[in-house]
Write a structure and sequence with these properties.
The chain has three helices and three strands, in the order H-H-E-E-E-H. By secondary structure, it is an alpha+beta fold. It has one domain. It has a three-stranded antiparallel β-sheet with strand order 1-2-3. Helix 1 packs antiparallel against helix 2 and helix 1 packs across helix 3. It is elongated and about 55 Å long.
């Protein structure tokens, strides 16, 4: 059983998801720059602004983790799972994340961040 409260676990998971999201956004930005789109600037600006927003939130998460003596480390991964080590106020916990779940969560976050400028 975990000793990490739900609200802090959400913040810890942000420390996992946000760097992954940044990686995807940077790759997409690179793909757009190399693409044959006639008008690249709007897409570039949208992704660049999203990157800045995600970086700002990641900085807040890192400050919170540091202030509260919490660490997150990626331990190992295979085709199906990625294991993370959570060091939480003297306790050590290992958590496995199903890789498709990680991918789906990154996709959800990407949709959320990209749509916040133009809510439906």
């Amino acid at each position: 059983m975990t000793k990490i409260p739900g609200n802090e676990r959400d913040i810890i998971e942000q420390a996992i998801y946000l760097p992954m999201l940044l990686t995807v956004l940077h790759r997409d930005l690179s793909a757009i720059e190399k693409s044959s789109f006639k008008l690249k600037k709007p897409y570039q600006h949208l992704i660049e602004n999203t990157i800045r927003k995600v970086q700002k939130e990641l900085a807040e998460v890192k400050r919170y983790l540091h202030k509260n003596n919490i660490r997150v480390e990626r331990m190992k991964s295979d085709e199906a799972f990625t294991m993370y080590l959570f060091l939480y106020k003297g306790y050590e916990e290992h958590h496995n994340y199903f890789n498709p779940r990680l991918r789906n969560r990154i996709e959800e976050l990407m949709c959320l961040y990209l749509s916040t400028r133009y809510p439906s």
